[in-house]
């Protein structure tokens, strides 16, 4: 198929490469020309603007952008996709944005005859490169079925979450819980060790008890408990604290609009905000444990 | 062996019965005489006071009491165990109390020649009846080895957590994380559903993603997601909200003494405190989700 | 002067009446026609749309709208003020909205030759009726000076807070602190009384000590401490809990965009969110103390 | 009168000096012998132990100790005051401790014929030296009247707060609110300035609006707003962050025992705990604003 791809950052570039590898023809755009050049070298065609992608005769367009403001500009702006794309072209937005914005764009797209899905991902840059991302997809079943082969070229796990915007809902609900769990594990591990326990023994007990969770078992933030996690390498790599801060912001903002209390989500957001202000937003999100440990 | 047992409440009574079933001889005390009578009918001998238990020629004494104040009274009071028990008798306190109090009693016991362990449990009244409790044990390795056969008669999983008090540390660290996770799952599920997702679909995504945890997988608080959990039966049974409140209080209090920040633990404590004040302390602790859902 | 006025709700209507009383000529618009009719009876002219107000030959336009979305629609929409208003007409937005939106609108207005101020108010419907509002004004000094006579017809206290958007900043910073103080007073009063103190004695001590604040001295939430406050009349009247919730939402949202931690502000927001979900959003904001008191 | 005085620290020493200045005869004890020597030089007699003070023929004993554990030891220990003091001697404890401990000691003292008051102070070391402390006093009216002349020699403001323990209740309720207010002011000032406002202008608006409070008007934490406050001298002097942390700990602990929610109090406690862990516990408590400001 002929696919348009906008947004060739840390996530978008490897995703686009996997579409090329699967045999699709790609027309790509990114304001950062070096990112475009790299994809062209891999076999893609370059487009000079979103409008140019829309007019390139593509059957599908995938977008991977940093914020809702970017998504609105790319889709709804004067020179944006909706103003220039042909009827029937399938639109897939894999950006992580708030559900309200996702629904607003999808409603406008659908109204003018373009089926649209929100399809945010989890799995990080590693999963993007390996083609093992999880896609959480919102939109109608028939459009989901239509998109499945394309998404499967970039991910291993493609889950239908319900109607438009629900991909975003699933993403922010899960990631809010992830942020809460990670802070909770950090507090519990730091407390237990401060009270005299060995970190590995404590993690072992938690992991076989009612406190067990992904953050404790797979991604424990206490140094020395697990190998091959960011805690074992000075919290480099992984999922950045500022990205967790962004997702907690999306979740608490959506909660505000829905008038839903999320007291632990809001407190976790404030902790990552504090951590970021102290200059540590670039560290992996498990480094939040440093808020609870005396300087070594 | 001849074992003394003090504290025949919802947990202590079935634990004592399992010791009888394992062939041990029991001398029991509880201020509530009906609780004593029931155990006597099952084969135990009654004692009229802690002093009487201490003087009954027992080799081991197990205590299962509601608070640190009770533990201090029973062990350290004028008529308490330490004042009257023979040298060498093994003391095992299975109450859930703060680590500082546990260490204070253990230090005094050890100093006068009575080996002592703190051995709080998890598993609830069901685990107590079935003999499948988990024991988290603090004390020296040799005393742990000595106690293992006795504890194994009451539980399935007996874990050595390090020196005196560390059983309590493991218990409160795990349960603080449990309380945080449960509130986190409650917030995430209520938010996702309020934003338009189906509860089962959302739980399915969380349980295969980075948000997964015991509270979501095994004990999901949203009604209709799982069968055979308190959420499926109006939040009756299970682990009461007021018991979670007690454990969160022990954890935040220990954190205060250790000068360790536990912001999510403290917020979770306040939420259970609010829930209790509103009259719901008797409901299972997963009912905390009702703080985040509009009255049905 | 000939002044346009858009937004004739609980606040806007009495503000417009005070402009009429001061001798100004008014052209008004509100989608709710009864609100317009009432002002027409008082001497104003009716306009059928924002466009009509813009084209009515007014020298000044004042807007008093519920949300940033309304402000953007009224100013920036196709049929909005900026598209139709003559150059040089002074624009004053008295809505309480987020500073970013206020700055966005002011920048566009200024760029096309319309001086603009953000001028949110405090003082409630009582102050609006009595003409004793406080205006917190953002914009250049010269525009502020130009607007002073008009604002003075509606308020007693008109404060210049700096450049565009700073009126909103002052409003949300003050109201976030107000929300925090009110919850703090509620917690302290409820705790003191639960521990055995007389509410009036406690308030007296606080009001002569370092805990004193407007929420304690002037607006104490504990029933029986002050007369003539909402706490003395079942929390009716006053400043609604849902309005405090809105302002706390604006503050935490602005904090999120500025990456500023506001942990108490965020917690206060969650408490008002919980209170609103429980169905009490219509009560005065001092009723939040009911979250901390056992049902009478 | 002949007065015993125990606890000659930063607060106790100047308080004892004021009693000497008022013409009273003093017998003093402190484990730190240099502190005793300094008072002896000022005219007091030294005692070698609490027992010695109790047996020195004093009519009144005043204690000023750091924690409830010290108070219990000094009053209730084997060599403590209650075991050796003559009937009728008036006991005044000016330590800041939890109300439950205060009531426990007062009940035992009263039962053996020693009238007792809890009389914690506010006003800091400056007020202690100047004799301008505020005393918040719990106990019966007649005992309060009896103690008034003695307390008036050390303070300017002596307030009867109700029965035994209520002095402590008033102190911790006020100081919890103080801690909340200070953090609230810090958040609001930091947010407003981050959003573009001048700190002095913002403080001026808050101080004439509903956000005004002691922490903003008298003790503003933002540097440059006020002279002669800790913020103007690098947060040296004043009321230490670790002392605020202690008082917030007493308040949340009392709330836990009373089953009262104090969500902002608990969050404020966690923030001071974090600040202390980061090594800043010795700075004035208004320095908490540094948690919310980017490193200069």
From TrEMBL, chains A, B, C, D:
Catalysed reactions listed for this entry: 3-hydroxy-2-methylpropanoate + NAD(+) = 2-methyl-3-oxopropanoate + NADH + H(+)
Pfam families assigned: NAD_binding_11, NAD_binding_2
Biochemical pathway: Amino-acid degradation; L-valine degradation
UniProt GO BP: L-valine catabolic process
Enzyme class: oxidoreductase
EC number(s) per entry: 1.1.1.31
A Gene Ontology molecular function term of the record: 3-hydroxyisobutyrate dehydrogenase activity
InterPro entries from the UniProt entry: 3-OH-isobutyrate_DH-rel_CS, 6-PGluconate_DH-like_C_sf, 6PGD_dom2, 6PGDH_NADP-bd, HIBADH, HIBADH-like_NADP-bd, HIBADH-related, NAD(P)-bd_dom_sf
Domain 3-hydroxyisobutyrate dehydrogenase-like NAD-binding: 165-291
Domain 6-phosphogluconate dehydrogenase NADP-binding: 3-162
Signal peptide: none
Active site: 171
Keywords, ordered alphabetically: Branched-chain amino acid catabolism, NAD, Oxidoreductase
Family annotation (PANTHER family): 3-HYDROXYISOBUTYRATE DEHYDROGENASE, MITOCHONDRIAL, 3-HYDROXYISOBUTYRATE DEHYDROGENASE-RELATED
Family: Belongs to the HIBADH-related family.
Name recorded for this polypeptide: 3-hydroxyisobutyrate dehydrogenase
Organism listed in the record: Pseudomonas sihuiensis
Native organism taxonomy: Bacteria, Pseudomonadati, Pseudomonadota, Gammaproteobacteria, Pseudomonadales
């Amino acid at each position: 198929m002929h696919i348009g791809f906008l947004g060739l950052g840390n996530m978008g570039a490897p995703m686009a490469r996997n579409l090329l590898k699967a045999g699709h023809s790609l027309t790509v755009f990114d304001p950062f020309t070096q990112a475009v050049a790299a994809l062209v070298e891999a076999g893609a065609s370059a487009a000079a603007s979103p409008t140019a992608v829309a007019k390139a005769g593509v059957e599908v367009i995938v977008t991977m952008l940093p914020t809702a403001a970017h998504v609105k500009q790319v889709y709804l702006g004067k020179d944006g996709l909706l103003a220039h794309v042909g009827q029937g072209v399938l639109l897939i937005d894999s950006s992580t944005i708030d559900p309200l914005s996702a629904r607003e764009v999808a409603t406008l797209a659908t109204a003018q005859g373009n089926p649209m899905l929100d399809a945010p991902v989890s799995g990080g840059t590693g999963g993007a490169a390996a083609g093992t991302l999880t896609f959480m997809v919102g939109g109608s079943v028939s459009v989901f079925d239509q998109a499945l082969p394309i998404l499967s070229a970039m991910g291993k796990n493609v889950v239908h979450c319900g109607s438009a915007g629900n991909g975003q809902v699933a993403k922010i609900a899960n990631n809010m819980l992830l942020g809460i769990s990670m802070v909770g594990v950090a507090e519990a591990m730091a407390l237990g060790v401060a009270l005299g326990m060995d970190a590995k023994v404590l993690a072992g007990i938690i992991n076989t008890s009612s406190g067990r969770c992904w953050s404790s078992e797979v991604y424990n933030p206490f140094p020395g408990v697990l190998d091959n996690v960011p805690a074992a390498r000075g919290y480099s790599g992984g999922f950045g604290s500022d990205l967790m801060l962004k997702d907690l912001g999306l979740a608490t903002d959506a909660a505000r609009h829905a008038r839903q209390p999320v007291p632990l989500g809001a407190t976790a957001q404030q902790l990552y905000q504090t951590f970021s202000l102290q200059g540590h937003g670039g560290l992996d999100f498990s480094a939040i444990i440093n808020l609870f440990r005396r300087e070594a």
